[in-house]
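Much of our argument rests on the idea that a fold can be written as discrete symbols. Part of our work consisted of pairing the sequence of a single chain with a tokenised description of its backbone. No coordinates are needed to read the tokens, only the vocabulary itself. The record that follows shows the chain in one-letter code together with its fold in token form.
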Amino acid sequence: MAIKPIIILPDSKLRLVSAPIERVDAELLQLADDMLETMYDAPGIGLAAIQIAVPRRLVVIDLAKEDEPPEPQVFINPEIVWSSDERSVYEEGCLSIPDYYAEVERPATVRVAYIDREGKKAELEADGLMATCLQHEIDHLNGELFIDHISKLKRDMVIRKFTKAVKTGELPQFKREKREREAPRPAES
């Protein structure tokens, strides 16, 4: 396994729509393992392949708390097939937008169809943090960022901040300490 560099806003690759995965093979599983290692190192709770500049429809998630054993999950070609009318709000963050957090309202419950590590079709109905994380990561696969769900004024301010940081070489970096994997910042991905 290898830790990959995470691309940061305003990198235009973050706006690419990721291509579907045709087959589950050793190369894809290696990519998933590299993504998990990268996510754990960041540290985060979710990562989409596009965040390491690979435009393929692959997501990894692990919501285990720091004092619990890891529970890595791999979602190949994930797609939201149903979402509830009920809404929930979480303060989200993103490994591609370091040290910026905002409250985002999303459906409280979703059903996601995907392919698992063994190449089998599966579905998962999720609520709470898992629902938020899945929606956040699937947005990445569609070229969307969590800041697309906040006001235009706030979004423009964030984009300007990161664009300026690129020019000055002062991009923010996630601190390497372990973060509690619950509120108030449950969706760092």
Notes: DSSP finds three helices and eight strands in the chain. The first helix runs from residue 26 to 41.
